[in-house]
């Protein structure tokens, strides 16, 4: 019933607007086309300048309202580069935005049709056109130069001492694998995947796999670079780290990498943000199916001691997988390919 | 329809208004009585085909925008049930809340419909068809039959897409970009079952429609200009339609090839895009394919596509601004040159959609450079539009207002392109609401504004009546303010890293602070949508009941379409096709308000 009423009200509003519009058309015919046009010009000219003023106030107000809700200080060293780039771009585009919008609406208001006013025949002016070709070109060159410097730094080879973590996307969660004590990930092959015992398809014949362990949260050490080896089991996902300002697709069959250096522990961020529930989140940023929106994982950034204590508690996947079975290792077919090694060898980044 | 009349058209100089007495345009020699079918259905008259494209586009726009209203309701009120949703969507909205599957289907269809069916077919299909023969001085397209086929392939594509909305597993739901493996595997998403096949079929038909149309537009512009209509005397809309058609003809086939490979992967067991997959509890046999290959093929069309959408709007806005400012467009050659530069660069920037796919960063650097380079011709255009209204004598017709709105939104959305085109910012903002804000403002709202400007401006040519001005003003102001209210705050959501295509944000510590903002945005969406319905009403009402046109040239414009009779028949000019003697922007020259293109240059005229 209330739905019906709502529709009725909307229809009524439509009818009223329509009647007004029709009446005003008759009035304008009575008044004569010229006079009606002058009146419309005055009203719309006023509205254009009002829109400019209120719009700029609105832009300022929107910023006041929302600036506290975006992320604040970047939580990684790479994020600092990105925020620096955003600042430069914001300043340049912001100035251009304000100037061009003011000119546009102010000219529209100022040069509205008036009795006796003549338009100025001004088909071209080479000097002006050269100026506004060259100035944007220079501004953009500056932005490209700064941008690429940051870009190459961010996408450079991870430092030698970087901790390695593998993260694999699947519908709809993240599988996180640590290399264990040897610091090396064992090889894997997708046909070995078994959701109960071997979610990423580790090859149990590879001794490097003996100490690799799977984790439900990603743990990082503050100040220590982490190199993520990113893959996917099914569709394209994307490892999004909003607080670190980083992102990299997880593509099935083609491992990618990304490295970050976290600056603050989770505990420090709780203080900084004043939010006791603060957590670093990994969001999936590439449409991956009906559960895309729920593809969340947590990163815990902590001190080296805390990290070591956590690592010590983890059981290797090999142990977990073989605990249930008889001690005799299953005789498996030798895998045809080895995607982890491919990642390290190709080292796309 | 033959264009042979052009051959001897130079003998007669038709000046403005000279043919006004022939209201019904029956003067064309080859005219024959049209049946209802040949006049309104299988019409080969470019003007009728334009109307068919426009009205089909309007219907799709209502559907596509209506979908966005439904999924915005979910974003604004994730915990509220709307029983009427269950009434219309059935099990897709059990209990009045749409399911995630329905949400993703709506999002995907919204994108596909708006990008391809509305802003490509509905915008360039309509106005290329309407304006190319009228403004270059031709009786019809180079091949009216191909032109008719172009519409009917679009219609078929529409039917198939429409059918896909009603299949049991739902329409495609992997996003309008349809990235595999998600779009390749029915086990990964129910939308990737029969719905995806229908989507691909529909898109293939759509590509055929675009190619038939595009080749026609190009050949008409190159070969069928009337006497005196040199390329540099063409009105800017024609230049923009020309570059648009070239872009489409060169890039749509690449998209089609990508789709064909996807079909093979889906049904023929090939592995173009598939490698090392473990889906629905079992490992697939495909190895060695590259999911990224599809993205290259897709964006090789996908990026030119955004220019296919925006170039016609740019061209029409240039024309409407010049006419209503009573001033020549500033820097005609620079405008043509920048259209050309944009068209070339459009082919060289596609990988900026792929900065975070693992693309080689060195290669990425070139795409950064080329992408930001596009800002230069875009800036030239903006400054030229602003200079066009400077010292003008502007009439704020609804068309003129939408043109001003176009420039405003093109600036706002274009500038954020400088953010996203720079890979070191994109790495944070990629696939967030910042991207949504950027492209909706620059190619959604702007392109729509260009389209509205075109509709209000050329409606009298299409239907020999005016649209209601007051409704036009209401439409403009609510849409302009509403569009900014919807999309401006989204930049902030994107800065917070809020990902696009999420069904619900409430479990995310990093993004749930925007609940109130999402409510605000969705409420504005509903209001703006209702206003568009007002426009649709105005459009259809005015076709039948609008104020009648009493002059052939209602805006006192210089271009050829206004030398045709009020009701132009098939063939456009009852007598000879007028000859052209000057460029189309002689407004306020030598103290004359305007000099039509058909007027010969007099010896005492000043040079420009």
From TrEMBL, chain A:
It is found in: Cell membrane; Membrane. One of its GO terms (molecular function) is cytochrome-c oxidase activity. Residues 338-349 have a biased composition (Polar residues). Its EC number is 7.1.1.9. Keywords: Copper, Electron transport, Membrane, Metal-binding, Respiratory chain, Translocase, Transmembrane, Transmembrane helix, Transport. It holds the Pfam family COX2_TM. It comes from the Bacteria. Residues 63-158 form the Cytochrome oxidase subunit II transmembrane region profile domain. It is an enzyme of class 7 (translocase). It is a multi-pass membrane protein. GO terms for biological process: ATP synthesis coupled electron transport. One of its GO terms (cellular component) is plasma membrane. Its main location: membrane. Binds a copper A center. Residues 160-313 form the Cytochrome oxidase subunit II copper A binding domain. InterPro entries: CcO_II, CcO_II-like_C, Cupredoxin, Cyt_c_oxidase_su2_TM_dom, Cyt_c_oxidase_su2_TM_sf. Residues 322-349 are annotated as: Disordered. The chain crosses the membrane at residues 6-24, 45-66, 86-109, 130-152. PROSITE patterns: COX2_CUA, COX2_TM. Its cofactor is Cu cation. It catalyses: 4 Fe(II)-[cytochrome c] + O2 + 8 H(+)(in) = 4 Fe(III)-[cytochrome c] + 2 H2O + 4 H(+)(out). Subunits I and II form the functional core of the enzyme complex. Electrons originating in cytochrome c are transferred via heme a and Cu(A) to the binuclear center formed by heme a3 and Cu(B). PANTHER family: CYTOCHROME C OXIDASE SUBUNIT 2, CYTOCHROME C OXIDASE, SUBUNIT II. Belongs to the cytochrome c oxidase subunit 2 family. This is Cytochrome c oxidase subunit 2. It comes from Chitinophaga japonensis (Flexibacter japonensis).
UniProtKB/TrEMBL annotation, chain B:
The chain crosses the membrane at residues 53-75, 102-127, 148-167, 198-218, 238-264, 306-323, 330-350, 362-387, 399-421, 433-459, 471-490, 520-541. GO terms for biological process: aerobic respiration; electron transport coupled proton transport; respiratory electron transport chain. The keyword Transport applies. It is a multi-pass membrane protein. PROSITE patterns: COX1, COX1_CUB. Residues 36-581 form the Cytochrome oxidase subunit I profile domain. GO terms for molecular function: cytochrome-c oxidase activity; heme binding. GO terms for cellular component: membrane. Keywords: Electron transport, Heme, Iron, Membrane, Metal-binding, Respiratory chain, Transmembrane, Transmembrane helix, Transport. This is Cytochrome c oxidase subunit 1. It comes from Chitinophaga japonensis (Flexibacter japonensis).
